[in-house]
Amino acid sequence: MSRFPRFEPPPRVVDASLLGAVVLLLATGAVSLVSGRPAAAWVFDVHAVAGLATVVLLAWKLRRVRHRLRPGDLDATRLLSVLLGVVATAALATGIWWVFGGNLDLGPWGLLNLHIGLGLVVPVLLLLHLRQRFALPTRESATDRRNALRYAALVGSGAVAWQAQEVANRVLDTAGAERRFTGSRERGSDSGNGFPVTSWVADDPDPVDREAWSLTVDGRVGEPLDLSYGDVTTEDDPTSTVDPAERRALLDCTSEWYSEHDWRGVSVGDLLDAADPEDGAAWVQFRSVTGYRWSLPVEEAGDALLATHVDGERLSHGHGAPIRLVAPGRRGFQWVKWVESVRVTRRRGLGEWIAVFVSWYDD
Ligand SMILES: Nc1nc2c(c(=O)[nH]1)N[C@H]1C(S)=C(S)[C@@H](COP(=O)(O)O)O[C@H]1N2
Ligand SMILES: [Mo]
Questions:
Q1: Which Pfam families does this chain map to (predicted)?
Q2: Which of the four, 39, 57, 156, 275, has the lowest number of CB atoms within 10 Å?
Q3: Do 325 and 335 contact (CB within 8 A), yes or no?
């Protein structure tokens, strides 16, 4: 029998809760990857508290089913269940380890990427597992008041543990203490080009020739523009037609780190003013020489910068020379590097989501 008979809900309620927890973790995990504004901090908190509650649910579940694991009768169904148990445990462990300052060197990836990867495998294995073993909780157990209380206790202890973690990290002064609310840790702020270079998937273009390069601004505009490097920077050409714009902004990648810098370049708002968007223009798409692209709503784009310099240094090739998007408040993957085209549109191309995963350079 269970050692905590009063807290542990009936088996099917535990199972249904695990399903609910995985859905919630997947949803909040996905949203957390694209959120970088403090107003979204609650999403990260829900993810953490749900993760901690899942530790308890999974412990109950594993204790209940472990007797089924006799080496003699491991069929495919059971092997899948074992795999699910292992991957789910690893996903929870890597998440907690990251919070406490853990590190792992997996070439271009790190511990947080491993956590994300494992977290994406769990729902797939769970779906397969459910095809074999799905059963609804009985009506009585679903409406039992004691179960509601057990839930409150479970979520409450998750929340308390999450708070305690903050204190523990600070007292023990771990690397986990310097996390931003997104989970990212600080790297190379105010050091010019000396912060990590991260490219997503396979984007690895040859250095872009400044002299041959030009920036077009077109689409739904009255006055399309075609600008040379001299046009977008005052560095070489004091008679440049655009005013330099400067902005302090924080780049928060989804692979573990963030970095804050003073960026200098040309204001997208100024470019748009010059290009004169038509009525109905709603999106501005920034496109890289690699085909990688991202759109911002037109009002927000007006507040963004196309940067040629970081902390007074010319951008290095790795950071997107000759020009890269600085989109304050947006996660790093939206800060398009090696930009060559700014296109004003009415609708957002759905292809962007695909290009983010499959763009590559071919010349
Ligand atoms: N064209 C292009 N732009 C890109 C990427 C990319 O792979 N290709 N990676 C993005 C990601 S995931 C991040 S975090 C930032 C990283 O910028 P950095 O390499 O200057 O640090 O660039 C973004 N811009
Ligand atoms: Mo990133």
A1: Oxidored_molyb
A2: 39
A3: yes
Cis peptide before 322 (omega within 30 of 0): yes
Which value, to the nearest 10 degrees, does the dihedral of the CA atoms of residues 248, 329, 185, 156 take?
140
Output the pLDDT for position 359: 61
Could you tell me whether strands 257-267 and 305-310 are parallel, antiparallel, or unpaired per DSSP bridges?
antiparallel
Determine the 3-state secondary structure of 132 from DSSP: helix
- The pLDDT tens digits for 266-319 are 999 999 999 999 999 999 999 999 989 999 999 999 999 999 999 999 999 999
Q: How far is the CA of 212 from the centre of ligand 2 (A)?
A: 28
Torsion angles phi and psi, residue 25, rounded to 5: -65, -40
pLDDT of residue 100: 93
CATH topology (fold) of 192-358 = Sulfite Oxidase; Chain A, domain 2 (3.90.420)
Write out pLDDT tens, residues 223-280: 999 999 989 986 655 565 667 899 999 999 998 999 999 999 999 999 999 999 999 9
Ligand closest in space to the Cα of 191: 1
Q: What is the Cα–Cα distance from 153 to 148, expressed in whole angstroms?
A: 9
Domain range annotation of the chain: 3-179, 192-358
| Residues in the ligand 1 pocket, defined by CB under 6 Å | 195-200, 203, 253, 288, 290, 292, 318-320, 332-333, 335-338
145-172 helix and 41-65 helix, angle to the nearest 10 degrees: 110
CA of 330 relative to ligand 2 center, distance in Å: 11
Distance 70 CA to ligand 2 centre (A): 44
Token representation of residue 19: 């399903």
Ranges under pLDDT 70 in the chain: 1-6, 201, 234-242, 357-363
The rounded distance, in Å, linking the Cα atoms of 246 and 232 is 13
For ligand 2, a single-atom ion, the residues with CB < 5 A are 198, 253-254, 332-333
Say which ligand is closest to the CA of 202. Answer: 1
